[in-house]
Design brief:
With 54 residues, the protein is mainly α. The chain has two helices and two strands; from the N terminus they run H-E-E-H. The radius of gyration is 12 Å and the shape is globular.
């Protein structure tokens, strides 16, 4: 596996684990593992914004 592909895989796994810990398992009808890294990052950042106290 190339270094870039491996880095993307590790980043996706890390963010998926964080989303799972927040109770997020799917985005619409797609499981997290089906999403791209960009989609997962967006979902994670959106969830963090929602959880942040005002």
């Amino acid at each position: 596996m190339s270094q870039l592909r491996e880095a993307v895989f590790r980043r996706k796994e890390k963010l998926i684990q964080k989303l799972l810990a927040l109770g997020i398992y799917k985005k619409e009808e797609h499981h997290l593992y089906e999403l791209t890294l960009s989609e997962i990052e967006t979902e994670y950042h959106n969830e963090i914004k929602r959880k942040k106290p005002n």
